[in-house]
Amino acid sequence: MSSLDSAKYPVEFEVNGEKQTIRVRAADILLYTLRDNLGLTGSKSGCDNGDCGACTILVEGFPIKSCLMLTVEVDGKQMTTIEGLRNSPVQNAFVKNQAFQCGYCTPGFIVNCEGLRNKLPHADKETIRVWLESNICRCTSYEEIRNAVKDVFSLEK
Amino acid sequence: MIPFDFEYYKPTSVQLAVKWFHFLQKKGKNPLYFAGGTEIITWARQNSIHPGAVVDLKSIPECNAMEMRNDKLIIGACVTLSALSAANSFPLLSETAQGIADQTARNQITLGGNICGNIYYRESVLPLLLANSRIVIAGMNGIREASIRDIFLRHLRLGNGEFLVKTITDRSYLSLPFVHYKKRQIGNVGYPLVTVAAFKKDSQIHTAYSGVCSFPFRSAQIDRELNDSSIPLSDRIVQAIDYLPAPLLNNAEGSAPYRKFVLKQTMADAVHTLESR
C-alpha cells in the first residue's frame, strides 16, 4: 500500500519553483502546511470553509482553495502561492489600480487572476466575472479589482 | 485544522481501492472513499465525522475518464465539475455543474463526490436522472452497472464498501433542447432555493429538481401532470406540486411557502420555454 501506518507521511512537491520534502499528518490542511511549516504566510485563512477564497493558491496551474485540500494530496505536484507572483503583471495591475483596501483578500484575488491568465489568456468579461465570484472582498473593492483584471486582459474598462 | 488523525491511502486501481477499503474496515478504521474531499474535510474540521482512514480515488484511471465511446459519454467519478463543464460534452450537465459552488471550488469538487455527498442539493445528479444514465459501481463482488434512476432514490444506494466509478450516458440525450434554472435567495453563488433541470424528448418535457425537498429527485407523476396540455399550465403546476415526494425544504435558504412560490414560477418558466421549442 502506498501509505504508512505511522502518523506522518512524506510529501514531495514544488512550490514557487523550489522543491520541498516534508512529513505531515494525513489530516493536515494544505493552507496551514504552507503557512506554519514553510513560512509562506501570504495565503490567508479567512473562512476555512471554501467560501472566501483568501487561501487560493495554484496547484498544477489551477486555482484551488488550500483550506479544503489535504497536504498529502499535493505529493508530486507543482504549486504557486502569492509569494511566487512578486512583480507579476497581475500584481502590478492591482497596485496600479489600487485594487485593495485592507489587503487581506488580495493574495487570493491575484492568484485566482493569475490562474485565469494561464488557463484562459483571452478570457472575456463574462468568464472573468464567473472566476472572480470565487473570492470575497469584505472592503468591497470590487470596482478597482475589476479594473485591475481588465488591465491584465487588456479589456476596456 | 482537523482535530484527529486518519490514515491516507491512494490506490491506483479499482480492485486495490475495494480491497484496501475492506481491509481497513476489518481493522475497524471506519474508512471513507475520498475524491475532491471538500465535504469530507469540512465535516472533519467540524468534528462531525471521524474516519480512521480515507481511500483517495483520484489516481484510478477509470475514475478520471472523460470520453465518447460507442455513442456513450463516459465521465469518471473523479472528473472535476470545472473539467466536465469546460469539455461541454453534455451541455445540460455542464450548465448544471457551473451553478454549483464557485469556479475555484469546482476545480476540486468531483462529479462522484457531488452525487454521493451528504448535502441536500447534489445538483449534478439532475441531468443524469433525466438522461437515464447508467452508473458503474465497484465493490467486493466486482463491477456492476445500474440505471441511476433505479439506484438514486433520495441518495445513491451503494452497498457496503462500494464506490461510484463512472457514469455512462447515451449520445441521444446529449443534445436535446433543455433549460436549467437555479434560483437562489441572493447572488450567483450559493445553495438553491430551487433548481430545475429539464429537457424535451419526443414532444414530452422531463423535469428534475433540487432544493425543493431534502434530496434531488425526478418524478414521473410530476412530468405527467406538466405534460397534460388539455388543461391550463397554472392548473397543471398546482396538480404537479401535489406529487412532491417529500415536504418542501424549510431552511436558511428559504421557507417552505417561499420555495413553493419560486417552484411554481420556475416550473412555469421551464414548461413555457420548452413547449415553444
Automatic annotation (TrEMBL), chain A:
What's in the keyword line of the UniProt record?
A: 2Fe-2S, Iron, Iron-sulfur, Metal-binding, Oxidoreductase
* MF-aspect GO terms: 2 iron, 2 sulfur cluster binding; metal ion binding; oxidoreductase activity
Residues in 2Fe-2S ferredoxin-type domain copies: 9-85
Q: Which PROSITE patterns match?
A: 2FE2S_FER_1, 2FE2S_FER_2
UniProt pathway annotation = Alkaloid degradation; nicotine degradation
User: Under which name does UniProt file this protein?
Assistant: (2Fe-2S)-binding protein
**InterPro entries listed in its UniProt record:** 2Fe-2S-bd, 2Fe-2S-bd_dom_sf, 2Fe-2S_ferredoxin-like_sf, 2Fe-2S_ferredoxin-type, 2Fe2S_fd_BS, Beta-grasp_dom_sf, Diverse_Oxidoreductases
Task: Please give the Pfam families that the UniProt record associates with this protein.
Answer: Fer2, Fer2_2
Among PANTHER family, the record links this protein to: OXIDOREDUCTASE WITH IRON-SULFUR SUBUNIT (PTHR44379), XANTHINE DEHYDROGENASE SUBUNIT E-RELATED (PTHR44379:SF7)
Q: Which domain of life is it from?
A: Bacteria
From TrEMBL, chain B:
Does the keyword field hold Oxidoreductase? yes
Q: Which organism is it from?
A: Cohnella endophytica
Occurrences of domain FAD-binding PCMH-type (ranges) = 1-174
Q: Which UniProt keywords apply?
A: FAD, Flavoprotein, Oxidoreductase
Task: List GO molecular-function terms, semicolon-separated.
Answer: FAD binding; oxidoreductase activity
Family annotation (Gene3D superfamilies) = 3.30.465.10, Uridine Diphospho-n-acetylenolpyruvylglucosamine Reductase, domain 2
Q: Which domain of life is it from?
A: Bacteria
Q: PROSITE patterns from the entry?
A: FAD_PCMH
User: What is the protein name given in its UniProt record?
Assistant: Xanthine dehydrogenase
